[in-house]
């Protein structure tokens, strides 16, 4: 069964379809799709896959008229993130950016407003920001229906705010910026230092949900969650071609991160990822129903006694014999310390020689704060994961 399963994932990861509204030189991540879901629909008459997020909204051909249903489809620790559900729609009409005085129709103008907003786009866009995009609370950035990219400049900073949903955006080649004045609310500005060059930086924020995005090739992390952030879900994303993918926790000495709770679910961790998928400090981390396809150093690491609950994942090691180990325990005090940390592998499929080093006392009660949803059997993931990353949503059709 393991051989068949591995062959299925090898096929899925190389299958492609094309957008009905292609951008010139459409990059491979936007095209990446499996034909599994479309084949199953024709056989069963159902578009449901067992992915609870997607099954909540994707089967509606009128998804464009009912966009805000998405806000009630969250799972995991970030399930309370409603974004701009209770506000008006705001349509982005231009790729232009002005970090100090953004005008109507710019993405920056939308995200700094005080009131809740559900932000959508009126055509394909590749937005190159001049400074990091500082966001205000209760905002949804919803890229469905178009090819929306944020790239080749500083990217998203979710700092000191709450209730943010980021959905359907291709975020790549993000770079540092700063030593500049940047607007963060109407009539309010911040003097920013040099940013890290993360794809999505979540800093001292709560109730945040990043779903169905594609992320690659940023200067620092793809998604970093630090400085007391909590109530976070990272789901259905496709990540590839990056060194340090995700950092959870500011530093070993930053005690407020002990309250951090993060769910990482239904993601596809693809080619060219090296490490930190994620790397965790303190806190509680539910890593559930993801597919890992060949990390170059390690997949899941941590320090400062994080609790890691790995359930129903598929770990497919590369053929490199020095990259079979999934976990990396980091401590200056040696084995006797990390062996006390609660790290478990529950129902994971370990393929092509993948190894998961568990630790801790192994009791179920130890993982109560690191449990946020019911894990699906790992054997079902071929029908769930192929829709990871930015979706090919055409108006008037199922996504």
From TrEMBL:
Keywords: Calcium, Lyase, Metal-binding, Signal. The keyword Amino-acid biosynthesis does not apply. InterPro entries: AmbAllergen, Pec_lyase, Pectin_lyas_fold, Pectin_lyase_fold/virulence, PEL. Its cofactor is Ca(2+). Residues 1-15 form the signal peptide. It is an enzyme of class 4 (lyase). SMART domains: Amb_all. Pathway: Glycan metabolism; pectin degradation; 2-dehydro-3-deoxy-D-gluconate from pectin: step 2/5. It comes from the Eukaryota. Residues 124-321 form the Pectate lyase domain. GO terms for molecular function: metal ion binding; pectate lyase activity. It catalyses: Eliminative cleavage of (1->4)-alpha-D-galacturonan to give oligosaccharides with 4-deoxy-alpha-D-galact-4-enuronosyl groups at their non-reducing ends. The keyword Calcium applies. Binds 1 Ca(2+) ion. Required for its activity. Its EC number is 4.2.2.2. Belongs to the polysaccharide lyase 1 family. PANTHER family: PECTATE LYASE 18-RELATED, PECTATE LYASE 21-RELATED. This is Pectate lyase.
